Prior knowledge:
This protein is mainly beta. It has one domain (22-535): Porin (Beta Barrel). It has helices spanning 2-18, 388-394; strands at residues 25-39, 78-94, 97-109, 132-133, 139-140, 151-162, 165-173, 187-197, 200-211, 227-239, 242-253, 264-279, 282-298, 312-314, 318-320, 327-341, 345-354, 364-365, 425-437, 440-450, 481-495, 498-509, 525-535. The strands form three sheets. The protein has an 18-stranded antiparallel β-barrel. It has a two-stranded antiparallel ribbon with strand order 4-5. The chain has a two-stranded antiparallel sheet with strand order 14-15.
Amino acid sequence: MKKGLFILLVLFLTALAAAPAVAVDVKFSGSYYTLGWYVDNPSHLDKNEAPGAASWGTVDASQANYANRDARSRRGADAFYSQRFRLQTEFQVVEGLKLVTRFDALEKRWGDQAWAGGTGETQSRTQTPQGSLDPNGVRRGAANPKAQENLEWERAYLDFNVPFGKFQVGYMQFLTWGTTFLDTTLTSAGIRYLYSRGPWQAVAAIEKRGEWVGLNANNIGVANDADRDVYDFGAIYKFKPGEAGILYQYSRSGQNKWEQGNGYLTQLNGLYPYAKATFGKLFLEGEAMYAFGDLRSYESTSAAPTGGTAGTNRPGGVSINNPAQNVGVQAFGAYVHGKYDLKPAYVGIKFAYLSGDDNSNSDKATGSIMQSQQMNRSFYPTLILWNDDYQNNMGNIQGNVPAGATGANRRTGQNYTISQNMDNVWFYQIYAGVKPMPKMNLMMALSYATADKKPKSDVGAVGSPGYYNPANRVTEFVSDKYGTELDFIGTYKIYDNLTYMIGIGYLWTGDYFKGYDNDAKIRDNYLLSHKLTLNF
Length: 536
């Protein structure tokens, strides 16, 4: 018996030694930044207004962790440091086959101990059930925050060539196409196929944005096919001065489709053509958007909608209990950017338009879909308005815009506050800069923005023929003016891969932030920032 085991062991070791060696080539890349900010008036309301005035009552719903604090705390300035470490690793198994991963770590404000349960960051912990107390004794942080708040493994996907193209499978970067106009640098799961031949490239993909069994835990077996999938089909043509392409995207969400009730299906189509080219000293780029489809397509238009959208008491004591009505959507967008290089100086202009929805038709939305489609978070046109860094750290720009039903478009989900997702806008910008030395870049930009449609208050039961009822008191924002912003950004390369940035932004706050109340007192805001970024 022992002799037999010995022979098997020898055979196993011989086979192992004869097996071909697999050498995996590992490549690392990533970044680290630390950012310091002073924001003078994040509320954009008058800090000198007497306590108790109407606009003092507005609490920023996006700052959920601070909801129990006195609303006046939003009036003060804020100063902080934040940072993020990002590491991407590529495992090159063989030529044409690799595994790509990426994670973020210590992405937080300096000194923030909400994740640690109120103690110092001196010990490891698997859970933080209570959150922490701020200096005023008010509890901050969710009741059960993430145990891995400071380590988020975000991407892992296979990238491999085949004789007829390339596949990428797993969690990877989606939501980017053409220019940066509608991009959002977020991660989604899916499968992407790429095929190149000469100057042409074709792309096809399926994205899994959501996988649900129902609207909540109590609806298991009630909601049907509650997924959100996105399908992409695109083509790119590259020519000597640039490239052009067009993407067709189909998005389907069944999260509100019910087996036992009258729910609805959302199906949206989008066409996104773009072009960009350089002609000598002139760079031009542009992108357009046309979105259409069904925002709400009900199982039945002869029964009331399921989910609380009918039979609701409205202002004036009127109860609406009408059959469901389908709601379509037709939205438009356009972006143009031109830059002329005068070396060492340069000048440029930017224009962006995204249609809004003013609830003027009960059966059709005319825009305000960027938030629901997770689009346009990475455009970064200014330092304050629609800036992902600013909103991530400071929350949405609230002003006197109310929370709740009257502070958002109930059909499309778009919040009336200013978030990362630029929408419902006419945006104009001129900028100029100079590079006095190869490692230094100084740039100044002046931007002006207005809303395409002034938001309106809730006008009735969503998706029903009674959407407009005379008993409902419909009001609209006092102004469509977001404001005028002046930004200065200076960068200097300390090393080729280490950059220091200084940013100064001043926003002349527009009356849009008065919301529905013309008597609300708004005030300008400015920020001072500096950022140290390492790329490797």
